[in-house]
Amino acid sequence: MHLTPLFLGALAALAPAVQAVGNAIVINNCPFPAYLVRVGQFQGPENKLDANGGRYSEQFVRDPVSGGIALKITRTQGGVPRGDPQTIYAYNLNNNRIWYDLSNVFGTPFAPNALRLAPSDNTCPTIFWPNGVSPGGSQTRDCQPNSDVTLTLCA
């Protein structure tokens, strides 16, 4: 079978565009372990982030029900279901952008240590809390969806 360039061009025009998507990354540089639970439509298992370099990574996705994903991080094993102090790295892949946010609930689990939420595309805004406490105001930022966005604990 011989396919002409015109036919191949027409076929390519019908195919949906595949867009590169980045990753949500959490790196634990603290001298103690941290525990991460992924929450969207469903709650995932707890992931231990070892002290001094433990890492978690997932490709950005859009949750079909909730829209956004929350990576809930505590200093205590089993802390999320108990309602222990949590730092939450939330993201939402929407309208050809990755929206990311940092917040604390039920306390400030990483104070007085710095937290940095930074995209790999350095033209996009970073969120930096020098003492692990929100400076107040909206902490929501956005970037190109192919950028990795990394939360560094004890930055």
From TrEMBL:
Highest taxon listed in the record's lineage: Eukaryota
Arranged from A to Z, the UniProt key words for this protein are: Signal
Q: Name one Pfam family in it.
A: Bys1
Which region is the signal sequence? 1-20
Q: What is this protein called?
A: Bys1 family protein
Q: Which organism is it from?
A: Helicocarpus griseus UAMH5409
